[in-house]
Write the structure tokens for this entry.
Amino acid sequence: MPDDQVWASLRLSSVITGDGNMRCELYSRLSRRITQPLLCFSLLAPAIGVCNCEVVSHTGGFTELRLKEALQPGKKITFVIGYREPEFKAANRAWLP
């Protein structure tokens, strides 16, 4: 499957939680299961995995994040990320992945 078709079959939504972390949901419309999903994105500063994910590597704000569960067809995975430095808190949409 070409990359553009795979991306059209995945949807990532993110919201800022009350404590300044970012709760994300990744939804799959793919017909196959993805084991050990790895997401790559940029943030304004280095991130940490707070819930259901772990940072595999980062360079500045560029982050590689592994989800702790498989992505099933027609299902979503919820995970929470935050900024590594406590003084950084997501404040608006520009701070989201």
